[in-house]
Specification:
7-stranded mixed β-sheet; Rossmann fold; alpha/beta; 2 domains; Helicase, Ruva Protein, domain 3; binds glutamine; 277 residues
């Protein structure tokens, strides 16, 4: 069987809009090749042992395992990141939070930045890569997630990120930052989407937070002022229908210039504010 035939069969089995792209990603993962390889090798015959391994990963995907967990990779910002079932799969909308953070962090300043619930390290590593003089601290409750995040820092040679185990701001006792960012869990624990698609396979602790999805957001907003310098920023990702609620949380905690930014789909996605100072 040739590469082209194998991809056609797999795409037909996977179905859906992204089937062709997914079949390619799974074959490249099986072969350990970069995307450019495909262009020159569509007519190559594929060895039977590779076909067998490819069919195994296509079967996993066809049974519903998220593509990122099957390949163990997901691109975020400019970084190719390792992910595992211990980490949320980084989402494109979280790049909005990175953009908003970078807009508040001028180059060449030794800012102190914290990323709470870092998961695969996506936000912390994106900021660290764009602001090499900044010192970033990334926390996560999950040791499994921190192991993945540390591996990603090492793979991208980002030495300006420290990782600490613990709940939200707990590992930051006695420290203050210029900017705190977080993409915490924000889905209501009764939301039926949790039982659908990729979400079924992701850590529930990274997705759901209380009956209204606002528990972690509320805890972070309340505790953040004690860990920010005067004038310091808090940036929180949240659900499309939580903008007003999160603005109220920030205002109640003493933040000013509180505003909500919308993602590329024009949905409320990130609320931010700064401490007076
Ligand atoms: N944005 C994710 C989703 O709705 C949820 C991630 C989160 O709770 N932080 O699928």
């Amino acid at each position: 069987m040739t590469v082209a035939e194998l991809l056609r069969q797999a795409a037909a089995r996977l179905g859906g809009d992204t089937a062709r792209h997914e079949a390619e990603a799974l074959l490249l993962h099986t072969l350990g090749c970069e995307r450019a390889w495909l262009f020159a090798h569509a007519g190559d015959t594929v060895a039977t042992d590779v076909v067998a391994r490819f069919e195994q990963v296509v079967a996993l995907r066809a049974e519903g395992a998220p593509l990122a967990y099957v390949t163990g990779r997901r691109g975020f910002w400019t970084l190719d990141l390792q992910v595992s079932a211990d980490t949320l799969i980084p989402r494109p909308e979280t790049e909005l939070l990175v953009e908003l953070a970078l807009a508040r962090l001028a180059q060449q300043v030794p800012w102190r930045v914290a990323d709470l619930g870092t998961g695969s390290g996506a936000i912390a590593l994106a900021v660290a890569s764009e602001r090499p003089r900044a010192q970033v601290v990334a926390t996560d409750f999950s040791e499994g997630a921190l192991a993945v995040a540390r591996a990603n820092a090492l793979a991208h040679a980002l030495g300006n990120v420290q990782f600490r185990q613990g709940h939200w701001l707990a590992p930051l006792a006695g420290e203050r930052f210029d900017l705190i960012a977080s993409n915490p869990p924000y889905i209501a624990s009764t939301d039926p989407h949790l039982d659908q698609g990729d979400l079924r396979h992701e850590p529930l602790s990274a997705l759901a937070s209380g009956a209204d999805g606002l528990q972690a957001l509320g805890e972070i907003a309340a505790a953040a002022p004690g860990h920010l310098h005067p004038g310091g920023w808090l940036l929180l990702e949240h659900g499309w229908d939580q903008g007003a609620a999160v603005r109220a949380l920030l205002q109640r905690a003493g933040f000013v210039d509180v505003a909500t930014a919308q993602d590329l789909e024009q949905r409320d996605r990130v609320t931010l504010g700064r401490l007076p100072g």
